[in-house]
Amino acid sequence: MDVKAYMSGLGQQAREAAALLNKANSGTKNAALLAMAEAIDDARATLLQANAKDLDAGRERGLDAAMLDRLELNDERIDGMIEGLRQVAALPDPVGGISDMNFMPSGIQVGKMRVPLGVIGIIYESRPNVTAEAASLCLKSGNATILRGGSEAIHSNQAIAACIRRGLTAAGLPEAAVQVVETTDRAAVGELITMPEYVDVIVPRGGKGLIERISRESRVTVIKHLDGICHVYIDLEADPQKALDIAINAKTHRYGTCNTMETLLVHETIAGEILPALAEAYGAKGVELRGCEATRAILGGIKEATEEDWSTEYLAPVLSIRLVADMDAAIAHINRYGSHHTDAIVTENYSLSRRFLAEVDSSSVMVNASTRFADGFEYGLGAEIGISTDKIHARGPVGLEGLTSQKYVVLGDGHIRQ
Fold first, then answer.
1. What is the pLDDT of residue 390?
2. Tell me, what's the pLDDT at 382?
3. Distance (Å, rounded) from C-alpha 234 to C-alpha 267?
4. How many other CB atoms are found less than 10 A from the CB of residue 115?
5. How far apart are CA 162 and CA 157, in angstroms?
6. CA 180 to CA 184: how far, in whole Å?
7. 281 pLDDT band (50/70/90 cuts)?
8. pLDDT tens, residue by residue, 157-180
9. Can you tell me the distance from the alpha carbon of 139 to that of 304, in angstroms, rounded to the nearest whole number?
10. What is the 3-state secondary structure (H, E, C) of the chain?
11. Chain centroid to CA 27: how far?
């Protein structure tokens, strides 16, 4: 295959489809999303068979447990894709909305209109459900998209892509509105990120190495996050049961996700009371603990946490624990070692919780809740295109509004500037 010519063709088709999508009304887009959901529901057996091929190939290639977990499809995850599509269909369409319309002294009216970004290229690894999530959000926000999944999920992604095409056709929209790259040649990524004439935004979803490469080499604007080094801080005034429940869930609900806690910070005054119970719960789930000197003095028998550990996204059943003197020390640790993704405090002190919300520099900051809630679906976005830790345009889970921009609109009645 001539990869350059192939990707250029996808880009041309996507640009043409984007122009048609810009004219599509909400009813048409919603009909396509609901038809996609129905097609996925009807194709369960086909999707599971395709996914089984990917899982078998992944095991033969020696993929680790976290990668295989992200790769796996089951009935629950298929249900999640279907529900995500239906939820996005039910959300308000941001495109065309006009806000902040005001009269100026000259008599003209000035406001802002939400518009699609255009063509969005999405590069992701493992998780085949991203194919449906990305398609739904891009379509509802009026954007055409080119999806390039990982080679390890090629069969799953193509099976889902067939369902997406059926939904688009049923609603009378161009199939090129959502295109899934069919080649596993890595050169396709290099082409996708260097086609600014066809692609307006790149969203990479995957490991740090992939995202660093995309950020370094792309000639197209990138919406990204590099790591998910998330923290939970258990404050002196934390409710013990809430602290146990949140700290256990934030780490063990799923290990291979970017909103999983990687470092637990505990106020030194209550550490002796809460750490043994936490260590017992983590031990029952097979979590390896690494601690600072003070943590090891309480628990004993655990590994020493090194400077590298504080900056590591494990994506595995490994947790670093550090004792801190107060919330100021916790915030200082988070802002130094964190990745500006998601951080939480467990406390009953209202004033401290407000300070934590204001002073922790992350895209999601939580009080008395597990970091695992940092997710577009849980935030009511229907799904998410990814998490952004950037500070311009979109931050946190990127949903429909994050996939649009605004342009100024001016209404006059023959007005001329004096």
1. 85
2. 64
3. 6
4. 18
5. 9
6. 11
7. very high
8. 999 999 999 999 999 999 999 999
9. 48
10. CCHHHHHHHHHHHHHHHHHHHCCCCHHHHHHHHHHHHHHHHHCHHHHHHHHHHHHHHHHHHCCCHHHHHHHCCCHHHHHHHHHHHHHHHHCCCCCCCEEEEEECCCCCEEEEEEEECCEEEEEECCCCHHHHHHHHHHHHCCCEEEEECCHHHHHHHHHHHHHHHHHHHHCCCCHHHEEECCCCCCHHHHHHCCCCCCCCEEEEECCHHHHHHHHHHCCCEECCCCCCCEEEEECCCCCHHHHHHHHHHHHHCCCCCCCCEEEEEEECCCHHHHHHHHHHHHHHCCCEEEECHHHHHHHCCCEECCCCHHHCCCCCCEEEEEEECCHHHHHHHHHHHCCCCEEEEECCCHHHHHHHHHHCCCCEEEECCCHHHCCCCCCCCCCCCCEECCCCCCCEECCCHHHEEEEEEEECCCCCCC
11. 26
Q: Which two tokens stand for residue 221?
A: 């604007």
Say how far residue 48 (Cα) sits from the centre of its chain: 24
Burial of 208 (0-12, 13-18, 19+ CB in 10 A): middle
What letter represents residue 133's amino acid? E
Calculate mean pLDDT across residues 92-120: 96
Is the sign of the CA dihedral 37, 384, 176, 192 positive or negative?
negative
- Closest listed residue to residue 387, CA positions, set 350, 362, 352: 362
The pLDDT tens digits of the residues spanning 246-255 come to 999 999 999 9
User: Which of 210 and 51 is assigned the larger pLDDT?
Assistant: 51
The chain-wide mean pLDDT, for the chain, equals: 94
Count of residues in the chain: 418
